[in-house]
Amino acid sequence: MTRYDFDLFTIGAGSGGVRASRMAAAYGARVGVAEVSRLGGTCVNLGCVPKKLMVYASEFSAAAEDARGFGWTVPQPTFDWATLIANKDREIARLNGIYRELLEGAGVRIMEGRARLRDRHTLEVDGKVVTADRILVSTGGHPFKSEIPGNELSITSDEIFHLDRQPERVVIAGGGYIAVEFAGILNGMGSQVTLVYRGPLFLRGFDDDVRSTLANELRKRGIDLRFETLIDRLERSGDELLATTNHGDVIKTDQVLSAMGRLPNTAGLGLEEVGVELSDRGAVVVDENLESSVPGIYALGDCIDRIALTPVALSEGMALAETLFHDNPSVVDYTNVPSAVFSQPPIGTVGLTEADARNQGFDVIIYRSTFKPMIHTLSGRDERTMMKLVVDRPSDRVLGVHMVGPDAGEIIQGMAVALKAGATKAVFDATIGIHPTAAEEFVTMRTPV
Questions:
Q1: Which of these, 33, 101, 37, 42, lies nearest to 313 by C-alpha position?
Q2: CA 394 to chain centre
């Protein structure tokens, strides 16, 4: 007779939790999962997937404009917010069903409800007590708002996917992925967008050429960027909101989106009570094997506050299942993790920024190219693509690849493979390009900046 109800019990059915659970079950483990909301976590329900669908929707307005230069006569397009939201919700519901099928098909028991730890082997899920040999915390994160008067009048990315109607005017507070992506989305749908950010330039941590290029392109599209600006208070005046900035300006708007960042979802789980160490941001502190300070309790994904990207959580989930239930000790390699920002135009990046490379002591050579994308030679749109290589001079190894422009995310995925393989600039130079594409620029840049 087994000592526990489960070999592994997972709190949270997001991307990482589902991957770890179903792979552990496939390896013969008895697995249970508790989820208080919908299956799939942030990515499927309130993040990557619905956001990318909305990015697609917002791009059709620019495509209609650009078509004229290619001989198309396109009537003035109109957009219906309710139709997009309904179609998006239907797709999300379909994906929720797929996640359920994946788990149940692997033999995982799904328990719907909020879980809380009683001790290192015991949990309570909405009043029902279960035991497990090992426990995995994969509860994701949540958006937070700044503590200003009237902050209850703003919304976060959790709510924007479910608004009844599109705001005609919107103020976005923040400078990360969510802020710049929704600035492009709402602008493309016809909203008047103002983005305010406390720093001199948004997307802190990205290469400076990427940041400045995107700022220029967003301004060309009519987005009002206000850097070194904070919202001090929000007030309602009739049907509109008044956002007062630290400069004393009052911005009249219909909606304020607070995109100030996200925090780990670890409150109320009983973690500290059983001895699990948390960081000052509330993240579960784990070692390279994703094990917390309490043996047998593990964590992964956004709630460990390492790299909050879905593919990273998936890799962590796979590594944990391999280590615990397949006799294959595995750790995640967090170097050269590629990422994309689905701004308009989009960003793709992998490896070190120029500043990081210099700060780490590398003697770098920089290759950079800016040009008008071929499509806009006829569309007439004033848009520039920027591509950049950061190269270590002594070894010739490519340390970083950065791009702002159409299809950046698709192109950088291939560059990530090259960096993972340790490609040098000579390898890039010896590679024949595909013509005519933007991607060929990465293998034809010969002159350092």
A1: 42
A2: 34
CATH superfamily of 6-142+263-325: FAD/NAD(P)-binding domain (3.50.50.60)
Q: Give domain limits for the chain.
A: 6-142+263-325, 151-260, 339-443
Give the phi and the psi of residue 28 in degrees, each rounded to 5.
Answer: 105, 0
User: Known catalytic residue: 435?
Assistant: yes
Cβ pair 300, 266 in contact under 8 A: no
- Measured CA to CA, the distance from residue 93 to residue 91 in angstroms comes to 5
* pLDDT, tens digit (0-9, with 9 covering 90-100), for 74-130: 998 999 999 999 999 999 999 999 999 999 999 999 999 999 999 999 999 999 999
What is the fold, at CATH topology level, of the domain defined by 339-443? Enolase-like; domain 1 (3.30.390)
CATH for 151-260, among 3.10.50.40, 3.40.50.2300, 3.50.50.60, 3.30.450.40? 3.50.50.60
pTM for this predicted structure: 0.95
The model's pLDDT over 392-441, given as tens digits with 9 standing for 90+, comes to 999 999 999 999 999 999 999 999 999 999 999 999 999 999 999 999 99
- CA 18 to CA 21: how far, in whole Å? 5
Name the residue with tokens 């309490």: 294
**Catalytic site residue from 142, 326, 402, 435:** 435
- For 188-223, the pLDDT digits (tens) are 999 999 999 999 999 999 999 999 999 999 999 999
Which two three-digit tokens encode residue 71? 């001989």
Kindly compute the dihedral angle of the four CA atoms of residues 125, 283, 207, 182, in this order, to the nearest 10 degrees.
Answer: 40
What three-state secondary structure class fits 62? helix
Q: What is the DSSP letter of 283?
A: P
**Measured between alpha carbons, how far is residue 15 from residues 162, 274, 422 in Å?**
22, 26, 29
User: Same topology for domains 6-142+263-325 and 151-260, yes or no?
Assistant: yes
Q: Which helix (H) or strand (E) holds 339?
A: strand 339-341
Q: Place 1 in a pLDDT band, splitting at 50, 70 and 90.
A: very low
